[in-house]
Amino acid sequence: MFFGSFNKKLNFTESDYSEQNCGEKDAFNQNEYEKIATEIGFYLGRREEYSAQEAYGYFHARYGAYPIDMRRFYDYYNTSATCFWNEKVLSDDRDIESISQYKDYFCYLRDGKYTDEHNITFVIDPNFVDVDGSKRGAAGRGTGRYLDNIIVVIGSFDDLNINSMKVLLGDGCRPIEYALEFFRRHSGSGAGILRHIVEMFKDRLGKLYPYPQRIHTALENDDICLIHVYGEGEEHSFSVKFALSPSPCLIFYGYNMEENFPLTAVGVENVMYWCNTAIECGNLLVAELDGREINRFEWIAPHICGVEELVAFYIDELSKSGKYAMSGTVLKYSNFLGEVFLSASI
User: pTM of the entire structure?
Assistant: First the structure.
């Protein structure tokens, strides 16, 4: 039998531990592993690194896995039996910590509270999905024999990189064990994940704003990527930063705004919203006196439509800081795409 649970920080694999300490010979099968690797590549695409969220995404897409609070482990021990027989599966949860630990190589709970290693705990019900090709789910429903669920946990210290994966319930299911081994081999520092997310962003932005000559990568390495996007003329711009440290994040800068998101596919969706908003609603007003710039305002909002509205906006903005408009001031206003340009004198 092959066991795929692991903890990278502690350099622990359950398969090696079982062989060295329990006399259970490692039964790793390369052909079965390659089959699962191909399947994961089909669902997630082929890459060198995958995030904790992506790993869960595979189990969700392939097996209908759903997330739970680890502290409610016994509520999901056998949900099929509960559903059909109305049996209570709730139990005293004082021993849940022992379930989530293994010879000090895993520790997701301590004194009823989560540790620094965050977790995604999920359930797979083998009575309703074909997990290992044995069709045992269909047989179980026909005979009234129900199988315990498979419960797996993914651990991460930064909510991006996989540190550990453990089968809490249902160990020995080959496709699950080999999937864990695959994600052990395809997890690391996060550099590959960062580059993938950056490529996702560039692809989305290219469809949203089809001016590649105005999209510039100012900095890119294994820890950070900084992208500047310019509008009509370089006075209009916004930036997006992708970073792994001090914590993985994705940041939108522009028009006096700063919005932070997690470095995930969902984070890309959120930052794309602000990129689109900046492109559609980015405004710039420059005030000059005797050919010298005296004030500059950048903001995101519906466009100013006329000279009177422009002058009123400028006067109102100055009044907020106790200032007033000086005679002879020239106002120059434009939007991100250069579709609107207004000029006015006071």
Answer: 0.82
Q: How far apart are CA 198 and CA 241, in angstroms?
A: 9
* Separation CA 210–CA 330 (nearest Å): 33
Each residue's pLDDT tens digit, 190-243: 999 999 999 999 999 999 998 888 999 999 999 999 999 999 877 899 999 999
Report whether 6 contacts 13 (CB < 8 A). yes
Q: What is the DSSP letter of 241?
A: E
Closest CA to 105 of 177, 158, 153: 153
How many beta carbons lie within 10 A of that of residue 175, not counting itself?
18
Residue in the block written with tokens 């290693």: 117
Q: What is the pLDDT of residues 100-118, one digit of tens each?
A: 666 678 888 888 788 999 9
CA distances from 69 to 47, 91, 106, 123, 153 (A): 29, 15, 17, 10, 10
Residues of the chain with pLDDT under 70: 22-26, 80-103, 133-146
Residue 313 contacts residue 285 (beta carbons within 8 Å):
yes
| Helix (H) or strand (E) segment spanning residue 96 | helix 96-99
Bridge partners, residue 75, by sequence:
none
User: Strands, E, within the chain: which ranges?
Assistant: 6-7, 12-13, 66-68, 109-110, 113-114, 118-124, 150-156, 164-169, 215-220, 224-231, 233-243, 249-254, 257-262, 282-289, 292-300, 330-335, 341-345
Q: Please give the radius of gyration of the chain, using alpha carbons only, rounded to the nearest integer.
A: 28
